Structure prediction request, 1240 residues.
Amino acid sequence: MDKLRRPVKQMDIRAKMTVDELVKEMGGAAFGAGRLAEALDVYEAMLRDDTTKFFGLAGAMVPAGMRKIIIDLIADGYIDVLVTTGANLVHDLIEVWGGHHYRGTSVADDIELRRQQINRIFDVFLPEGHFSTFEKKLLDVFAAIDAKDMSIRELLTEIGHRVGADSIIGVAARKNVPIFCPAIADSVIGLQAWLHTQTHKLNVDTFKDLHEFMDICYNANRTGALFVGGGVPKNFILQSMIVTPKGGFDYAIQLTMDRPETGGLSGATLDEAKSWGKVGEEARAVTVYADATITLPILVAAVRERLERK
Amino acid sequence: MDKLRRPVKQMDIRAKMTVDELVKEMGGAAFGAGRLAEALDVYEAMLRDDTTKFFGLAGAMVPAGMRKIIIDLIADGYIDVLVTTGANLVHDLIEVWGGHHYRGTSVADDIELRRQQINRIFDVFLPEGHFSTFEKKLLDVFAAIDAKDMSIRELLTEIGHRVGADSIIGVAARKNVPIFCPAIADSVIGLQAWLHTQTHKLNVDTFKDLHEFMDICYNANRTGALFVGGGVPKNFILQSMIVTPKGGFDYAIQLTMDRPETGGLSGATLDEAKSWGKVGEEARAVTVYADATITLPILVAAVRERLERK
Amino acid sequence: MDKLRRPVKQMDIRAKMTVDELVKEMGGAAFGAGRLAEALDVYEAMLRDDTTKFFGLAGAMVPAGMRKIIIDLIADGYIDVLVTTGANLVHDLIEVWGGHHYRGTSVADDIELRRQQINRIFDVFLPEGHFSTFEKKLLDVFAAIDAKDMSIRELLTEIGHRVGADSIIGVAARKNVPIFCPAIADSVIGLQAWLHTQTHKLNVDTFKDLHEFMDICYNANRTGALFVGGGVPKNFILQSMIVTPKGGFDYAIQLTMDRPETGGLSGATLDEAKSWGKVGEEARAVTVYADATITLPILVAAVRERLERK
Amino acid sequence: MDKLRRPVKQMDIRAKMTVDELVKEMGGAAFGAGRLAEALDVYEAMLRDDTTKFFGLAGAMVPAGMRKIIIDLIADGYIDVLVTTGANLVHDLIEVWGGHHYRGTSVADDIELRRQQINRIFDVFLPEGHFSTFEKKLLDVFAAIDAKDMSIRELLTEIGHRVGADSIIGVAARKNVPIFCPAIADSVIGLQAWLHTQTHKLNVDTFKDLHEFMDICYNANRTGALFVGGGVPKNFILQSMIVTPKGGFDYAIQLTMDRPETGGLSGATLDEAKSWGKVGEEARAVTVYADATITLPILVAAVRERLERK
Prediction:
C-alpha cells in the first residue's frame, strides 16, 4: 500500500560520526529525528537553489552562544536578509563593545542577583554594568549619524559600519546583508534612542523598511526562510508573501518549542501558513520541535559538510 | 515548621458556584489551580490600589473571541495603557468593519483552504475577502489623516476616532487609553501603510512613542501589569522599568503556555524579571501556565464579581 | 460556504456568572476556550447517555487538591471505573490516615528540604514522617488480608474496606467502583509490598485484572472516558477497545498539557486513537490543552450545574 | 565576582565536525545546548565510574527508530538494568518477528487509516496485520513457558530467550541485563496474556520484581540513571532510592519535553528528586528539554567517541 512504502530504518549510531552522518541516520527515523533530517534536506536544497535566503532570528540566541554561528552564516553568504529582535542586536553590540555573557544557573536567587547588579536570562548572567558601556557607545554612534529621515534598516547599517566586523551588525553592514528589526523600539536600543532624542534629532520612520523589504521579495527568484523561534521575525518574513505575487515561500524551516494549540503565530504550523499563501502549496516546509540551541548548530554543521563536499 | 503552615485544602466543587466561588476553592489547592487563585488575589489588589494598569496583549486573542472582554475592560477603567500586536488590531478592525471570524478546525486541508480563499488561525477560519474591505477602509482612513509627524500611538488614536466604539481601537480612543504597538509594521496595517506611502506621505516615527510611554511610567504612583502571552507587548512594558527609578512593577500577572527553558523573553519567569529590576523585589507576581483563552475570562469574571461586591 | 457557518461569538464576561454561564460564553469562542466548552457538552452528553464511565487519573492530582472532587464524583455516580497511578492512591491514603500536603513553593532549596525531611512535588511540600505512618498502617492492612491469589483491583478493594469513606479508595470500595492500577508496583504501596513479602505471603497477579476489566468493556452499552493527564491510565483504558468488538469509545475527553509531537501516548491526539479503533469513528472526542487542576474543576462544577437543572 | 567566572563562549561550527566536537562547542554555550554538553560530561563520567547503570525508556522510542541504539547499548555494556514500558517491548517484538514500522505523516485522516487497518503513532504508520503475527507468536511463547510463579522480569527473560538477539528483549536475555516493566499489563503483551489465561495458567506476580530490583540497588557501588522520557520507568527507578541507604543516585540524566509546572512526575526536575533523596545531594544531574529522538543519538554518538578514544 502506498502509505507503507518507507519502513522506519532503525538508527545506527557509532563513534566518530560526523554531524552529517548522524543526521543521515536520523533520516530513516521518525518524530523529531525524522523532522530534523528532513529539515537538513530542505536547507541543503534551499542553499543550492537560486534562492533569496531569509533568516528569522527570535529568542535570546546571542546570550545563548549562537552569535558566531550567525556571523559566519552572513560572512559566508548563507543569509541574504536577516530579520531579528532588538534584544539580539543589543546583546551583539554588548559583546562587540567588550562585554560578555556568563554561564549562570536558572535556579538563582533573583533578588540577590538584583542587589549584585547581575541580570539573568534563564541560565545566563549579564553584569548590569555592561549597559553603561553600551549606552555611552551607542549615544556616540547616534551623535555621529546624520539625522536625516531613514529606515530602521538604514539606522542599523549606520551602526554596523561603526562597529567591528566580528559582530552580526558589523558583518551584515560590510556584506550588504540588510537587517530588519521592526520592533526595535522594544529594546535597549529603543531606550537609548529615547534618551538621545530628548535633546537631539533622529528621524527613523516606522514603515519605510517595508519598501525595501517588499522590493527584495518582488525581485527574488526563489525564496526560502529559516526561522529560529517565532515572534516578529517570523511574522514579518511570512506576511510579505500575502501581497507579493509569488504564491508563498518555496522553502521554509522552523526550529521552535512553541506549540500550535494556543493559536499564536509563533507556534503556528507551516501548513497553516499555506492557507494564507505565505508558504507555497508546493513548498518544502518542515518544523522541528526541539530547542533551537541544539538544532541550529546541527543543521549548520551538517549543511556546511554537505556543501563543502561538492 | 514554617514550611508546613498551609495545608492543601481539597477543592469542594458544587453545582451553581459563581466563578469567584470556584476560584476561591482553587485557593486552597496547588499547581495551576493555586496559581490562578493567587493571580486573582493579585489582580484584585492591583485594581483596588492606586495603580497605573498596563495590559500586554499578545497572541491571536481577537480571533479567538476575547475582543469584547478587552473592549469592556477598557470601557470600565480596568486598563490604563494597552500594549499589543498589530495582528490583534487588524482583527479588531476587521470585525468593526463588518467582518467575522469563524469556528473552523485545526485539522484542515490548508491547500484546499487556500483555494477557497480561507485563512486559518489554528481552529479559526477567516475569509480572505475581509482583507479587501479592510484595505479599502484603512486606505480611506490614512487618506483622511494629516500626514504630520506622529507616533504609532497617535496614528492608532486617529484610526480609533474614525471607527465605532464597539472596537478595541475605537473605545480606547474615546476613553483616552493609549494603545502602543511597537511592531505595527509587522502586520497588515503595516502592509497597507506600505501601499499608501507609495503615493502619499505618512510620517510615523519609530521612537516617538517612547517619550509618551516613559512619561506615563515616571508619573505613575503604583504600577501593575497583566500579560496575556509574551512577545513584544510583554517586553515593551517590562523594559520601561530599567530606566525608571521605580524599582520595578508592583504587581504582575502572566498568563502563558510558554516555558522558561528555551530562554526566550516570552517564557521567562517574573522572578527572572526581578533580577533586571523590571518587577520589584517586593512585588506580588504570579505566572499561570494554562491557555489564556481559559484563564483570562475566569480572572475577569471573578475580579468583576469581587469589585462589584463592595 | 459550509466552512463559514459558525461565526466566533466574542465572549461576554460579567460579574457573578456561574461556572456554566462562563463556559457557555466560551462556547462561542475558539482555541482552548472553545475546546473547553465542547468538552463540557461532550461530558454532559456522556453522563446523560447510558454510558459506562471510565475515569483515567494520572499526575499528582491528590497532592494538588483534586482529591475531594474525585471522591464526590465516585460518591455521586459520575465514575463507574477508575484507572489511576499508584502515586494518587498513596497520597489518598496519606490523607485518610491523618497526613496533610502543604502549599510550598516550586523555587525551593531541595537540599535544605532534604535535610528538613520535606519531600517536594512541584509547589507542594510533604513531611517525610507521613510515610512512617503510611508504612505502619499499610503493613497492618496487608497483615489482615487473606494471602489468597488476587488481582490488583481486589487488593485495592480490600484496602478500601479498611479505610474511611472520606478517601478515594474507601468510597470506591463502598460504591463498588473498581479501581485499576496496573503499575501499582511503581509506588510506595509497591515498596511496602516488597517489605511485607520479605516475611509474608501476598499473591497479587499481574494479569488477573484484565479479565474483570475486559468483562466490563464487553458488557458496556455505550462507553465514555475522561482522561486527566495521560500515562498508564490513559493507555490502559484505551487499549481495551483494540480487542473488544465495540469499535471504540463513544465519548472521550482529554485534559492535558502534553503535546503530540514527541510521539508518546500521553500527548497523542484522540484522532490518532481513532486509527487504532480505540476511539470510535463517530465518537465525540475533544482534548483541552491546559492545566487539569484548572479545567477539571470547571468541567465538574459546570456539568453538575447542568445535570441538577433537570 | 564568583557568579561571573565562566563567559559564554560563542559556538564555532564548521564542516565535518564529529558529534563530540559539536557537543564540545555547545559546552561553552547556554540554554539547551549548554545542558546537552553537560549531560554528555555526566554520561561519560557515569560510564567511566564503577556505576550500576540504569536506563529508563518511556515514549514510543522503538517505532521512532531508536531500537538499534538500545540494542547496541545493551550489547556493549552501557546498560545494566533496563526499565521500560510494555509498548516499547511490543514494538520490539513486532520487528523481531518480521514486522516493520513505516514513515507516515502526522496530518493524516485517521478514519481513513482505520479503514485501511493502519495504526498511527504520530508520524509512524503500523499495519494492523502485524498484530496478528504478534499474537500468534506470543501465544506460542506463552505456551512454551512453564507456568510456575514468576516475576515480570523472569517472564521477559523467558520471552527473550525465544527471540533473536537482534532485539532489545533478545539481547538483554543473552547479556543478563534484566528488563523491568512494572506496567506490562498495560500493553498488547498484557492483552495476549489475558487471552492466554482464559484457557491456560500463567502466574506472574505483581510485586516479585521488587525483590530483585531492590537487591540490585542495595548491591550497587555507585549508581547512575539515564531517563528517556518520564512515566513509570522514571518513577520506578527513582523510588528505589527512598528505601535504600545509598542517599540517592550519583548520576542522573533526563531527556524530556515534559515540563515541571503541571506537577507530574514525568516533568519533575531532578532537583525535586533530591528533596526525596532519590537523587543524591552531591549528584551530577542534568535535564535536557528537547526531543529525545534528537538528543539520545547525539549523546550516544559522542560518548562512544569519547570512550573509544581512550
Q: What stands out?
A: DSSP finds 14 helices and eleven strands in chain A. The first helix of chain A runs from residue 19 to 26.
